[in-house]
């Protein structure tokens, strides 16, 4: 079966499904396999549950006329997504970066939805499976697609660009995330820059922050750029930071915006969404309204009032760069009692020991009342600072937990630490 023929079946279906627990009637089931499971074994179950067709890549599982045999189910899904993207011919904005890409994606979508019919990546489904599924969730009514791209190795962003074929792109930053997979900071810059490389090669438009010297130098000879800045007047989008206390307030074009995002690190994310909104002719008042109504969730920069305590829940993920700015933000708050509960940062490879030590040393320098470090990596750091207390596991932290009062508490760690579990202790 050709991709064109499969695409026609897709257009007449209720959509794509890869999980038999989430089958919708008349969907196309793709039997994707992983290290510990064979998706082909679920094909019959998918058809029984209501799927119209099941796509398999092992001949013994082609059991009837509603089972379609292909060479590779995942590659077929990716080719179908690219064909569908071309079929729709809509504008695609792609973004990547070490920190803040999901929040920025949601802000961009919130702003553009004021005028356009948009579809954006759900959650962080931003990999070689998530990007195709995002593209295949778009339809003839979709005017702009916002596609988040994640990676932890070289060539992954370049591969995702071949599937999504973006018309516009933005990189949030180059931070210390996935150091192990990328092979260090230079590898991160090279890997994330694959988005800009694709856009430049195909003469597409790039949004960028001129306050970021890496981006500024990389794009200085490319003409199809739209920049923003908080410092340089020659850039077409000058956006001014008013204050962070603890929420980010800023202004553009004589319009003041009072966001519900905390930390100066979110200012750049807000600048990007504002700039992209302006480019797509969103009215200033609509940008303001969209931003001010956006409330972060999913354990990202959430403010939770809990009795006498104020909790900054930023436990979705962590790396050295994002940990540093979160701690810096906590340090700058005027609150009387400030506590940090930090979990291990993963995927740092040979840099794990020094990066965890750096975070502990930073905590010692900052004006914090107590710091709790949780996890194997943090447990191995050395410190003589009495305000820093180490726990090898979350369970040992819970066993020794003493309730806080009248405190501002930052909770941050890598996804695998799942530090949001601490919330139940603070109730």
UniProtKB/TrEMBL annotation:
Lineage, opening ranks: Bacteria, Pseudomonadati, Bacteroidota, Flavobacteriia, Flavobacteriales
Broad class of where this protein is predominantly found: cytoplasm
Described function = Involved in cell wall formation. Catalyzes the final step in the synthesis of UDP-N-acetylmuramoyl-pentapeptide, the precursor of murein.
Q: Name one GO molecular function term.
A: ligase activity
Which family does the record claim for this protein? Belongs to the MurCDEF family. MurF subfamily.
Name the EC number(s). Answer: 6.3.2.10
- Kindly tell me the pathway this chain contributes to: Cell wall biogenesis; peptidoglycan biosynthesis
Q: Could you tell me what this protein is called?
A: UDP-N-acetylmuramoyl-tripeptide--D-alanyl-D-alanine ligase
Query: Which keywords has UniProt assigned to this entry?
Result: ATP-binding, Cell cycle, Cell division, Cell shape, Cell wall biogenesis/degradation, Cytoplasm, Ligase, Nucleotide-binding, Peptidoglycan synthesis
What superkingdom heads the lineage?
Bacteria
Q: Which InterPro entries match?
A: Mur-like_cat_sf, Mur_ligase_C, Mur_ligase_C_dom_sf, Mur_ligase_cen, Mur_ligase_N, MurCDEF_CellWall_CoF430Synth, MurE/MurF_N, UDP-N-AcMur_synth
The main enzyme category here is ligase
The chain positions of domain Mur ligase N-terminal catalytic read 14-83
**Which residue numbers delimit the Mur ligase C-terminal domain?**
300-378
């Amino acid at each position: 079966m050709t991709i064109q023929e499969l695409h026609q079946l897709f257009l007449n279906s209720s959509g794509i499904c890869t999980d038999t627990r989430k089958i919708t009637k008349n969907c196309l089931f793709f039997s994707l396999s992983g290290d510990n499971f064979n998706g082909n074994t679920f094909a019959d179950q998918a058809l029984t549950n209501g799927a119209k067709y099941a796509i398999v890549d092992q001949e013994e599982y082609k059991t009837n006329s509603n089972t379609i045999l292909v060479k590779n189910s995942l590659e077929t899904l990716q080719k179908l997504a690219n064909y569908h993207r071309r079929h729709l011919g809509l504008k695609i904005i792609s973004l990547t970066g070490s920190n803040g890409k999901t929040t920025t994606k949601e802000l961009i979508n919130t702003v553009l939805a004021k005028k356009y019919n948009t579809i954006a990546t759900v959650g962080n489904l931003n990999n070689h499976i998530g990007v195709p599924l995002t593209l295949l969730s778009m339809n003839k009514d979709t005017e702009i697609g916002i596609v988040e791209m994640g990676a932890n190795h070289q060539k992954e962003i370049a591969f995702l660009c071949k599937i999504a074929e973006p018309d516009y792109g933005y990189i949030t930053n180059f931070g210390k995330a996935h150091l192990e997979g990328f092979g260090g900071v230079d590898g991160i810059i090279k890997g994330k820059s694959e988005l800009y490389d694709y856009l430049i090669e195909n003469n597409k438009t790039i949004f960028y922050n001129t306050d970021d010297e890496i981006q500024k130098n990389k794009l200085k000879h490319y003409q199809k750029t739209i920049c923003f800045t908080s410092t340089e007047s020659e850039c077409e989008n000058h956006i001014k930071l008013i204050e962070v206390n603890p929420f980010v307030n800023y202004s553009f074009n004589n319009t003041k915006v009072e966001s519900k995002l905390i930390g100066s690190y979110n200012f750049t994310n807000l600048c990007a969404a504002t700039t992209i909104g302006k480019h797509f002719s969103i009215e200033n008042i609509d940008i303001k309204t969209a931003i001010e109504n956006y409330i972060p969730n999913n354990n990202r920069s959430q403010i939770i009032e809990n009795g006498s305590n104020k909790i900054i829940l930023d436990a979705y993920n962590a790396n050295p760069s994002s940990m540093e700015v979160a701690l810096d933000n906590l340090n700058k708050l005027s609150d009387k009692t400030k506590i940090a509960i930090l979990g291990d940062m993963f995927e740092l490879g040979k840099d794990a020991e020094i990066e965890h030590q750096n975070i502990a040393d930073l905590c010692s320098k900052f004006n914090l009342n107590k710091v709790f470090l949780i996890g194997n990596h943090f447990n191995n750091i050395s410190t003589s600072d009495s305000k820093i207390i180490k726990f090898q596991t979350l369970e040992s932290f819970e066993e020794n937990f003493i309730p806080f009062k009248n405190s501002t508490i930052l909770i941050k760690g890598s996804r695998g630490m799942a530090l949001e579990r601490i919330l139940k202790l603070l109730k």
